[in-house]
Structures are given as C-alpha cells and as structure tokens.
Amino acid sequence: MTPQPPLTGLRVLDLATLFAGPLAATMLGDFGAEVVKVEHPTKPDPSRGHGPSKDGVGLWWKLLGRNKRTITLDLSKPGGRSTLLRLAATADVVIENFRPGTLEKWDLGWEELSAANPRLVLTRVTAFGQFGPYARRPGFGTLAEAMSGFAAMTGEPDAPPTLPPFGLADSIAALATAYAVMTALAARERTGEGQVVDMAIIEPILTVLGPQPLWYDQLGHVQPRTGNRSQNNAPRNTYRTADGTWIAVSTSAQSVAERVLRLVGRPELIDEPWFATGAGRARHADVLDQAVGTWIARRTRDDVLAAFEKAEAAVAPVQDVRDVMADPQYQALGTITTVDDPELGPLRMQNVLFRLSSTPGSIRWAGRPHGADTGEVLSELGLTPAELAALREEGAL
Predict the structure, then answer these.
(1) What percentage of the chain reaches a pLDDT higher than 70?
(2) 205, HSE (Cβ side, Cα atoms, 13 Å)
(3) Is 296 left (phi over 0), alpha (psi -120 to 50) or beta?
(4) Count of alpha carbons within 13 angstroms of residue 328, beta-carbon side
(5) What DSSP designation does 276 have?
(6) DSSP annotation of 267
(7) Averaged pLDDT for residues 344-352
(8) 0.85 cut: is pTM over it?
(9) Cα–Cα nearest to 96, from 120, 72, 124
(10) In this predicted structure, what is the pLDDT of residue 15?
C-alpha cells in the first residue's frame, strides 16, 4: 500500500497572494496537507497573470497553485465573512498577507478566528511584520532584498547594488513560514491551543546573510561588494572556458584550494605564507584568479569539469534552465517532474522540496482554474444550494 503523506489530515486555508504566503502553502500541500486557496471573486491571485502564459493560462500559477483546491470568497461581504469563519472552524492553519489591520477591519482578526477555532494557527506574512513604524506600508520582497543588506553586498565593487531577478526574499520567507507553521503546530500538540505566527519578509533573508550584524557589532566591519569573489576564501569565481562557456570554482576548504592549485600547475603558491588561510588567499585573489583563469581558458568545458572531478576539486558549470532540464544529477534526483494538467497537458516543473524515505510528498495536480472548487468545497462544509445561491447573489462568491 502507498503510505499516506506526512501532513495528511492537515487543513490549510491559503488567503495570501504574491508570493511568500502562497508558496509556503504550496510546500505544505506537497506533503499531503489539504490546501484550500481562497481568492477574491473578481481579483484573483496576481500570480495567475505573472510572467509568460500559454493559451491564456499563466504558467507561474501552475507551479504556485499546485495541490490546492481553489474557491472564491469576498471577505469584505457579510456572507463571505461568515463563510470564512465556518471554513476556519474546520481548518488547522490560515495563511494571509493582507496589510496589518485588514482582517480586523472585516471582523476576521485573531479574536474572531480563534473564537471560531481555538486550535487554529493564524499565519500572517507581511513585508514588515504586524507592528513597528513600517508595519502598514505596502511592501514586496524587493524591499526586503534592499533593506536587509543583500543588495548592498551583491554586484561588482564599482557597480550599483544589485537586486536578484527573481523572488529571492519571498522564497526564503516561504521556507521560513512553512517551518514556522510546523513549529506552531508542534506547540499545539502540547498545549491544545493555536497561536499567531508573525512573519516579516525582511527578517528571514537577513538570517541567511550570515554573521554580518555580529561582525559589525564586534568589529565595525561592513561587507563590501566583491562581485563573484569572497572575502573569506579564494580562488572563488566564475571562469570562462576555451569553448566560451562559464564554470564556477569554490575553495572554501583549505585542502580543496591546494588541489586546485596543483591541478592548474601552480603548486608553488601553496607554500606562500598567505595561502594558509582563506582570508589570506582572498587578499591575493588577483594572483589566484590569474592562475586558475589562465588554465581554464585553454581548455574546453568538458575537459575542465573532468579534470576537476579527477582532482576532487569543487567545480560546477554555470547553467541556464536549458542545462538544468538536461542535467544528469537533477535527472537522477527527479528534481524536475512531469505533471499531467487538464488545461495544458504534460507540464514539467520542480518536484517537491525534499525526499522522505517512508512518507514522501507528491504533486497531485497543477494549479487549477480560478474558483474551480468553490461549489464542492462549500458543499462539503454543509452549505445548501440555496445558501450558495444567496452568497452569489450578494457577490460574496
């Protein structure tokens, strides 16, 4: 028999949009949670229209909306409010990303939700958190990438600060949110009571940037932009091969740095006093980049990768999505999987985030049309055809 996924029986209401909250809900759904996506009747999640589409169907939504049933509900209408409270009474988790005070304006704040379900975990994902001087400002992950220090340290030394070309802060916050939800649920097992999760998108990205606050606090050190180089080790860069491709080399471990220099024919550099530490090597990055870069520039990509692998030195090709889709390691891991979709046919997308040996996750379906499951979900809740008709008449569905 196929084992049940580990989050089977967990019910999540996804009220959030763009992108951290919904992605956290997707991660929970990938491992068996029943996720009900609640969207406005006339203003669906904007991710449905983000990026390229095929036959009028947004492809980003197919990824972000996978494993979710979709319903429509206008929470500002009395009927929408009462229906959400009925849904919340059956749920374990609500994920929302409205500006602070919005749910309270609709009489759907923690007081009302917890009264409907004392075991509920209300997860609030906003740019700046629920309090503080910026709390009510509009915000997106881009602002977190700027505020956290990420942009200031990213890019070439003589170039402007650089923002990532994708939702980095949102994605990091999504991972943190999924973790926070599971932590709150673990606490509920002991206390029997739910609680509020306050996730500010500006915080998780700061955590993954490492010890910068500690360095500044103790040493006054501010990490500068160093391009592809590191202040902590060298050689560490991207290098161009003879056939015009790029590869990345990292030497975080001393033993790997020594192997690389022997491989490229410069073993004498290993005996330099400064070579003994990562910081010392970083101060001589020009010398090391010249040694490694010259050797790589005379060889093809395949020859370089084969030589580094034989020398047990860390290297990887700089790949775009075309290379990723054909990469044998990703293929072995099943990182890209195929999902059959009624609208678009077979879709290749990222698989679930990790592998579990006994109770694996899975993608049961890709993102569904706007409101596709409204009637089914609300009928399961006990609403009669007459009640559904009344909600439609009110404009709540």
Answers:
(1) 100
(2) 26
(3) alpha
(4) 1
(5) G
(6) G
(7) 98
(8) yes
(9) 124
(10) 98
Pairing state of beta strands 57-58 and 11-14? unpaired
* Partners of 200 in beta bridges: 126
- Contact yes or no for 259/311 (Cβ under 8 A): yes
- The Cα–Cα gap between 176 and 37 comes to 20
CA atoms within a 13 Å half-sphere pointing along the CA-CB vector of 176? 23
Calculate the average pLDDT of the chain: 96
Cα distances from 270 to residues 263, 286, 298, 376, 396, in angstroms, run 12, 15, 22, 68, 71
- In 3D space, the residue among 251, 134, 121 whose CA is nearest the CA of residue 198 turns out to be 121
CB 201 within 8 A of CB 139: yes
22: its two tokens: 């919904």
Confidence band for 171, pLDDT divided at 50, 70 and 90: very high
On the question of pLDDT at 120 being above 80, the answer is yes
State how far the Cα of 149 lies from the Cα of 222, in Å rounded to an integer.
10
Question: pLDDT-derived band of residue 125, with 50, 70 and 90 as boundaries?
Answer: very high
* Active site residue ranges: 170
Per the structure block, which two tokens stand in for 39? 């969207």
Structure tokens belonging to residue 130: 């629920």
> What's the CA gap between 260 and 272, in Å, rounded?
15
Residue 137 main-chain phi, psi, to 5 deg: -75, 145
- Angle at 247 (CA atoms; ends 244, 251), nearest 5 degrees: 150
Q: CA-to-CA distance for 93 and 87, rounded, in angstroms?
A: 11
Question: What is the pLDDT, as a whole number, of residue 248?
Answer: 97
